[in-house]
Amino acid sequence: MKNAAGRKRRRENPFLRRLAGSPAGQGLVRVTRGQTAKAASAIVTILAVLLVIRVLSAWTVPVWFRGEKNSPAAVSNGFYGLPRDSVDVLFLGGSRAEAAYIPQVLYNERGITSYTLCAGDQGLRENYYWLQEALRFQGPKAVVLEAGSLVRGAGPDAARRGLTYMRWSRVKWEAVRAVSGEEEEGGLLSWLFPGLWFHGRWQILSEEDFRPADAVRPDGLMGWSSQYSDRWGLPCAPAQDNEVAADGGTALPEPEDTVWLDRIADLCREKGMHLVVTAAPADDLTIEDHRLLRQICEERELRLFDFGTASLYSRIGYDYAEDQADGQHANAAGARKLTSYMGLVLTQDYGLVSHTAARWEEGRALTDQVLRETRLRQTEDLQTFLDNLTTDRYAVFFMTDGPLSFPLSDEAQRRLLTLGIRTDLTALDGRAWYAVPAEAAGRVFTERTADGQTELEAEGLFRARRSRYTLRSTGEGSPVGAQLTFDGIVCEPPGHGLFITVIDAQRRTVVTEALFSSETGERVR
Question: 76 pairs with which residues across the strands?
Fold first, then answer.
């Protein structure tokens, strides 16, 4: 004990002990403590400022990242919310892929679980990094890659659309470094603070930009975009197989993006996954594009399903006029055909087997509902249209734009009454009229008919008071047109007649806007 005490005393420095007790030493302690406090305060202030900038910057991300077509935020968050190792097939690509493949249909028909991990304009580079990211959480047996961007190129905002909502990890750091070296402005720091990239949007922010909860909530459709629901109506012939095969023995120059296709193929081989390359029907793919896709896949021994060539197009019973929403995207009818055929390929050629998965079982009712909605968008007959409005999911707004002069059948009147509409529309005599939902959704309406023949205006709340609407209904001789606005979304008829707007009150989306002509009663497109 004495030796230990002695060693302790020998370690003490007499000079330091005297200095600590002197006035100068005490002043030095106060200065050191003060400097430490100032430094800590400065660090806290800097971190707080950076946090505020980060939050404010997030609001500058454009609405088209979130609210139109398929939201990349909702798609990525939906993917991250899946149970681990629950996905059999991963669909990758851009907007053509998100429109072409319906994971729930694949599960309903084949018992195969899948997810469409795509964003508009997403190129092969972004698909490569998303595949890497997906493998952190899932172990798919097959990857179906829609390769339209290989020959048509990715969009100018491909990186920002595709990678903004990927979680930060080693994969995202690699992706951001690859992208930031090619961007003309912003650089690496702009990925942490989006306001540096979207700085021009500060003056045009809208209400939609401040609704992050609605913007990033997954819609339950496993990445499929149900918004491509119109019927194109224009004929377009598929590429003839003999013309695609007649390459003249000359190899076509390959685009630079093939390096990313090679990386995707290498990663699939490394992980023991099947890679299937597809090309959805599109009117912007030339004979040379089809040849180039064929050449690239043959050289790499990759299997290609080019649905824009006549043999495969005919095999699945595809029809551009009926099955396309526009020139480059399948509608729901076309997507069902494409998905069903790929389900056949995946089971027969690649040995994927049917099984039961709780998350996909839960999705059956929602996808069925959405598929019914796509048919509603294509319905031309007023009576049939009214028949399909019976679900309580819908908030339906009725209004007139100008006088209604077409004869409304007794059956149509009865169906309106079944929905809850009590006004006799044949007795309006050119006056403005509207009916708005009095509840969150369902068949309870507040109706009003104008005293004169001018316009009516109204505003209120719906969706359990979570959404606000304003509307204008017009009668005969009104110099303005009808209009409905809710949560920043504007709906206007393309002419005069009975204007009906159907909103899914649960998903806060416009199901369809339908105008039935004031003269003929037919739906106006």
Answer: none
Residue with tokens 């017009």: 474
Tell me the two tokens of residue 210: 């401040």
Strand, coil or helix: 90: strand
The residue assigned the tokens 């806060």 is: 508
Q: What are phi and psi of 228, to 5 degrees?
A: -85, 80
Q: Which residue has the higher pLDDT, 420 or 54?
A: 420
Task: Give every CB contact of residue 318 below 8 A, 6+ residues apart in sequence.
Answer: 238, 281, 307, 334, 337, 338
Torsion (CA) 220, 278, 118, 101 in degrees, nearest 10: -20
Which helix (H) or strand (E) segment holds residue 161: the answer is helix 158-163
Range 425-438 average pLDDT: 90
Three-class SS of residue 446?
A: strand
Tell me the pLDDT tens digit for each residue of 362-411: 999 889 888 888 888 888 889 999 988 877 788 999 999 988 888 888 88
Distance from C-alpha of 312 to C-alpha of 113, rounded to nearest angstrom: 24
The dihedrals phi and psi of 49, each to the nearest 5 degrees, come to -60, -45
Name the β-bridge partners of 274. Answer: 142
Q: Are 160 and 122 in contact (CB under 8 A)?
A: no
Residues 375, 381, 383: CA angle, nearest 5 degrees: 100
Distances (CA, A) of 228 to 146, 269, 487: 17, 33, 21
- Residue 437's φ and ψ, nearest 5 degrees, are -65, 130
Phi, psi of 451 (to 5 degrees): -70, -40
CA angle 513, 515, 516 (to 5 degrees): 145
The type of residue at 129 is Y
Distances (CA, A) of 304 to 27, 290, 374, 448: 79, 11, 29, 58
The band of 461, judged by pLDDT with boundaries at 50, 70 and 90, is: confident
Lookup result for tokens 């702009």: 190
Q: What whole-number distance in Å separates Cα of residue 472 and Cα of residue 459? A: 9
Q: Where are the beta strands (DSSP E) in 431-493?
A: 433-437, 445-449, 455-462, 467-474, 483-486, 489-491
Burial zone of 295 (CB within 10 Å; 0-12 exposed, 13-18 middle, 19+ buried): middle
| Amino acid symbol at 33 | R
pLDDT at residue number 375: 83
Helix pair angle (258-271, 124-134), 10° resolution = 20
Return the structure tokens found at 360.
């996909």
pTM of the model: 0.77
Tokens of 272: 């023991």
Structure tokens at 305: 């399903």
Kind and range of the H or E element at 29?
A: helix 23-58
Q: Has residue 230 got a pLDDT over 90?
A: no
Token pair for 277: 């390359």
- CA nearest neighbour of 60 among 185, 130, 160, 162: 160
pLDDT, averaged across the chain: 83
What does the angle CA 141 – CA 146 – CA 152 come to, to the nearest 5 degrees? 155
C-alpha span between 266 and 128 (Å, rounded) = 10
